[in-house]
């Protein structure tokens, strides 16, 4: 038997600190339900992710033994991350654009580790066909499921028990009963507080989760080239790293996947005060020859400080990341066609302004 | 006929650090001193919550740094309090002066070391050099490799440390990330029966108390130091007996051998874990969670006809020399996997490697010893890596060793 048959893995991709505890609790429920089914299970986070950082994509895993002992399961799961996973849970649809969770590995496609015929479940308000246009191509068929909901921000400091856990479990039970099935899931949840409410959320998602097969080569091209890491002979000694030349940025260390919203600039009202340039902690702003400040979205982490310090009303406005399909620079777009840019600006700014706590379906 | 008590254990999903905090709660510790550093921190997160929830009545002192943290528990221990402390990586080293005097003053403090690479460069992942810094200063050192073993060993640590024949601090090391942050099912015994295993802490004539006027740690200079070191070494040696007694007693009270669960059976040896070693020509040696991929790799390679086994070091101080000799004297090749390194050492290898070579030196027929440096700073040692190590070891059954030390998967060296 191959390792792939002996251990099934669920990967939970989430945004650090905002969803840290949510991801852990989802993993916990899968472990306990698998045990109800008589299977050994363990869970582990990808430790190097540093999920305390705001919004950073981070991963949590569940390993479920399939005809192997608990000891062997722990042996297989003493890993930084599994090679392949059966199910990927994505707790925020803006993560579909790629994750750069593990520093030095580059921006990876969201479904990089998905097994053939695997399943990816996304929490999103978008319809499945919209999401299918954002997902990277695979060489095989796989299943995409959508739980229709706002991203739940249930992180480190406070856990908003908005039944997102139950919705995710319900969706896995529907799409992958080989991982956890509905009967045992309900048996596990019955032991928790507010069991009725939780069970109704599970059943609601079990019946309502939207899903379809994404066929081979459907989706976008997303070429992942892992950065080549230096050998010990090539590196400078004494923990020394050479600086990136002045005026350049590190092509291999883009941190843009941390953001779930990004700043937009109305250049028509910009007073060239330079505050955004001064305050940006990641030096994403570039001064243009005519004194405006352009943004390198690849490197923007979406912290929102520029929007906060900008003294002009509605000059810099944070916009939901799901409104963007690429990393084009705003100044270029504005220079190209000012009227079109303004129309586009008005359009994207109509989208969700901030993420809110939405009570679950099962109330 | 003695009545066999049927013990019902509760199965709870928890990681290595949480398991330690629960064990400390079961041991009813009196003083906890905390200062955060990954990856050990969740021990303190968990125990502070247990105190807040009323599950445990203990003083929770947040120190101003690691040095103060370890000084606090040292003094609390000398006045008769059962204590819990811990740290990781450079935090553990920052407390080193307090850590050394904890041992010389014979304070039976129990410390959790979430193994972490020493800076620089910054890395949160496991590397054993932090805990090994106290190799020579008189701490008892255990390495655990599952959350269950972390729980059980913590209870044992109090029993051993506080035994009046020992009175030495214990460091329980666990791999950062792979154990501190991995959730496994832990079987928790009923809390009431812990008192049958762990008596109250009694310092006897060494208790610092107004009714027992003594001075601890006076200035003594050259007239006394040798004798004090000699006593310390004897206590370290007596600990071997006390550790063995504690494991037997644990089995009697809780109905299972420490580290064992319903599904995972631990061989009954407190100091080492032999695995498929009886007829093994090649034996792998390691400490901590590396044993897990090692076991799977050994099973895989056995199917292909390789006679290979494992010896995991459970207690590093006192070092299990007799067990090492007993289990390794019939092996042809010994492959030591070190998650640490000793810079400028005799054979340019790891710490455990040198200890194993030293243990085997007096044998008439010595196995060959190879060293594999791997997993530094939290890098994986995969099942495939271990299989490759086994193959390299096997090749040296009949051929002399030309290259004793390999760096596993380092970029730039073929291995």
TrEMBL record, chain A:
Classify the source by domain of life.
Archaea
Necessary cofactors: [4Fe-4S] cluster
- Where does the 4Fe-4S ferredoxin-type domain start and stop, copy by copy? 261-290, 291-321
Q: Which UniProt keywords apply?
A: 4Fe-4S, Electron transport, Iron, Iron-sulfur, Metal-binding, Oxidoreductase, Repeat, Transport
Iron-sulfur as a keyword? Answer: yes
* Spans through the membrane: none
Q: Which GO terms describe its molecular function?
A: 4 iron, 4 sulfur cluster binding; metal ion binding; oxidoreductase activity, acting on the aldehyde or oxo group of donors, iron-sulfur protein as acceptor
**Per its UniProt record, what SUPFAM superfamilies does this chain match?**
4Fe-4S ferredoxins (SSF54862)
State if DNA repair is listed as a keyword. Answer: no
Show the PROSITE patterns listed in the entry.
4FE4S_FER_1, 4FE4S_FER_2
Q: Give the matching InterPro entries.
A: 4Fe4S_Fe-S-bd, 4Fe4S_Fe_S_CS, PorD_KorD, Pyrv_flavodox_OxRed_cen
Protein known as: Oxalate oxidoreductase subunit delta
From TrEMBL, chain B:
Question: Do you know which Pfam families this protein is assigned to?
Answer: PFOR_II, POR_N
What InterPro entries has UniProt attached to this entry?
Answer: PFOR_II, Pyruvate:ferred/Flavod_OxRd, Pyrv_Fd/Flavodoxin_OxRdtase_N, THDP-binding, Transketo_C/PFOR_II
What UniProt keywords are attached to this protein's entry?
Oxidoreductase
Which biological processes are named by the entry's GO terms?
response to oxidative stress
Specify the enzyme's EC class, one word. oxidoreductase
Question: Cross-referenced CDD domains, in alphabetical order?
Answer: TPP_PYR_PFOR_IOR-alpha_like (cd07034)
Q: Where are the transmembrane segments?
A: none
Which catalytic reaction applies to this protein? a 2-oxocarboxylate + 2 oxidized [2Fe-2S]-[ferredoxin] + CoA = an acyl-CoA + 2 reduced [2Fe-2S]-[ferredoxin] + CO2 + H(+)
Q: Where is the Pyruvate:ferredoxin oxidoreductase core domain?
A: 280-386
Span of the signal peptide: none
> Does this entry carry the keyword Oxidoreductase?
yes
Q: What is its EC number?
A: 1.2.7.11
Described by its record, this protein's role is as follows:
Catalyzes the coenzyme A-dependent oxidative decarboxylation of different 2-oxoacids such as 2-oxoglutarate, pyruvate and 2-oxobutyrate to form their CoA derivatives.
| Name the record gives this protein | 2-oxoacid oxidoreductase (ferredoxin)
Q: What is the lineage of its organism?
A: Archaea, Thermoproteota, Thermoprotei, Sulfolobales, Sulfolobaceae
């Amino acid at each position: 038997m191959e390792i792939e048959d002996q251990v099934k893995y669920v990967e939970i991709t989430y945004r650090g600190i905002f969803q840290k505890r949510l991801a852990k609790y989802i993993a916990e429920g899968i472990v306990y339900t698998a045990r109800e089914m008589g299977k050994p299970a363990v869970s582990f986070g990808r430790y190097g992710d540093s999920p305390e950082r705001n919004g950073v994509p981070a991963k949590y895993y569940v390993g479920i033994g399939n005809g192997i002992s608990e000891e062997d399961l722990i042996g297989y799961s003493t890993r930084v991350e599994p090679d392949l996973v059966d199910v990927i849970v994505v707790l925020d649809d803006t993560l579909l654009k790629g994750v750069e969770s593990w520093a030095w590995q580059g921006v990876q496609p969201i479904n990089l580790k998905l097994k053939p015929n695997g399943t990816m479940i996304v929490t999103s308000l978008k319809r499945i066909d919209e999401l299918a246009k954002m997902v990277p191509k695979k060489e095989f068929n796989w299943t995409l499921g959508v739980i229709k909901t706002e991203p739940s921000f249930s992180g480190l400091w406070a856990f908003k028990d908005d039944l997102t856990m139950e919705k995710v479990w319900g969706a896995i039970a529907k799409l992958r009963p080989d991982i956890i099935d509905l009967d045992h899931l309900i048996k596990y949840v019955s032991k928790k507080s507010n069991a009725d409410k939780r069970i109704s959320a599970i059943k609601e998602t079990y019946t309502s989760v939207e899903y379809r097969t994404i066929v081979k080569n459907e989706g976008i091209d997303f070429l992942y080239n892992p950065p080549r890491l230096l050998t010990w002979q090539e590196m400078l000694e004494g923990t020394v790293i050479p600086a990136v030349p002045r005026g350049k940025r590190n092509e291999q260390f883009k941190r843009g996947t941390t953001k779930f919203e990004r700043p937009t600039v109305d250049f028509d009202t910009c007073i060239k005060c330079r505050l955004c340039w001064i305050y940006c902690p990641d030096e994403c702003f570039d001064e243009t020859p005519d004194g405006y400040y352009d943004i390198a979205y690849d490197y923007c982490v979406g912290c929102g400080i520029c929007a906060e310090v900008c003294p002009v009303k509605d000059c810099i406005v944070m916009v939901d990341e799901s409104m963007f399909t690429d990393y084009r620079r705003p100044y270029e777009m504005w220079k190209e066609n000012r009227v079109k840019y303004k129309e586009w600006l008005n359009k994207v700014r109509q989208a969700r302004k901030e993420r809110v706590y939405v009570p679950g379906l099962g109330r | 006929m003695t009545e066999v008590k049927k013990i019902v254990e509760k199965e709870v999903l928890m990681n290595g650090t949480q398991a330690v905090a629960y064990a400390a709660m079961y041991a009813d510790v009196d003083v906890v001193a905390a200062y955060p550093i990954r990856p050990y921190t969740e021990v303190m997160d968990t125990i502070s919550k247990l105190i807040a929830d009323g599950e445990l009545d203990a003083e929770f002192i947040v120190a101003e740094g690691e040095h103060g943290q370890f000084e606090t528990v040292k003094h609390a221990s000398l006045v008769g309090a059962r204590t819990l402390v811990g740290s990781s990586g450079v935090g553990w080293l920052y407390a080193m002066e307090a850590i050394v005097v904890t041992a010389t003053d014979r304070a039976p403090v129990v410390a959790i070391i979430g193994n972490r690479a020493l800076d620089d460069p910054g890395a949160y992942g496991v590397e054993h050099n932090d805990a090994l810094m106290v190799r020579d200063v008189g701490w008892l050192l255990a390495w655990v490799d599952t959350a269950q073993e972390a729980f059980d060993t913590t209870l044992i640590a109090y029993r051993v440390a506080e035994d009046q024949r020992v009175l030495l601090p214990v460091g329980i090391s666990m791999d950062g990330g792979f154990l501190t942050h991995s959730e496994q099912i832990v079987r928790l015994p009923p809390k009431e029966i812990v008192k049958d295993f762990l008596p109250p802490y009694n310092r006897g004539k060494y208790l610092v108390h107004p009714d027992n006027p003594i001075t601890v740690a006076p200035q003594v200079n050259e007239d006394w130091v040798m004798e004090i070191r000699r006593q310390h070494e004897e206590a370290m040696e007596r600990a071997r007996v006390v550790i063995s007694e504690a494991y037997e007693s644990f089995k009697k009270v809780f109905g299972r051998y420490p580290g064992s669960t319903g599904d995972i059976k631990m061989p009954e040896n407190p100091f080492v874990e032999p695995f498929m070693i009886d007829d093994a020509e090649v034996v792998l040696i390691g400490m901590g969670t590396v044993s897990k991929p090692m076991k799977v790799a050994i099973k895989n390679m056995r199917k292909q006809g390789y006679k290979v086994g494992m010896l995991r070091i459970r207690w590093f101080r006192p070092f299990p020399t007799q067990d090492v000799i007993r289990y390794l004297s019939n092996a042809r090749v010994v492959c030591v996997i070190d998650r640490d390194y000793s810079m400028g050492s005799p054979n340019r290898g790891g710490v455990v490697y040198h200890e194993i070579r030293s243990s085997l030196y007096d044998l008439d027929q010595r196995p060959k010893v190879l060293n594999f440096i791997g997993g530094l700073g939290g890098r994986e040692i995969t099942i495939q890596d271990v299989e490759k190590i086994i193959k390299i070891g096997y090749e040296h059954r009949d051929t002399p060793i030309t290259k004793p030390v390999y760096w596993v998967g380092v970029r730039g060296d073929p291995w």
